[in-house]
Amino acid sequence: EIRRITKHSQTLEQLVNGRKIPPSGWQCDQCELKENLWLNLTDGAILCGRKFFDGTGGNNHAAEHYYRTKYPLAVKLG
């Protein structure tokens, strides 16, 4: 597996907003979905990913959060 380093990771600033991420029990901050979740590394938002071709998956909340905030780094949970 090749690991790539993105320019965004070199300058990541995490917001001090008091958010504590629990080790389990995650759900989308907007729709409470419990699968296909992404953690934004800047503000700690936990949001669902894109809807899959077959209609399953998420409600696109993580992508919408990026378009709104421009916080570029997120990791898949689970």
TrEMBL record:
Domain (UBP-type): residue spans on this chain: 4-78
Molecular functions per Gene Ontology: cysteine-type deubiquitinase activity; zinc ion binding
GO BP term (any one): proteolysis
One Pfam family it belongs to: zf-UBP
Domain of life: Eukaryota
E.C. code: 3.4.19.12
Keyword annotations of the record: Hydrolase, Metal-binding, Protease, Repeat, Thiol protease, Ubl conjugation pathway, Zinc, Zinc-finger
EC category name: hydrolase
Catalyzed reactions per annotation: Thiol-dependent hydrolysis of ester, thioester, amide, peptide and isopeptide bonds formed by the C-terminal Gly of ubiquitin (a 76-residue protein attached to proteins as an intracellular targeting signal)
InterPro entries: Znf_RING/FYVE/PHD, Znf_UBP
UniProt record similarity statement: Belongs to the peptidase C19 family.
Record protein name field: ubiquitinyl hydrolase 1
Organism: Rotaria magnacalcarata
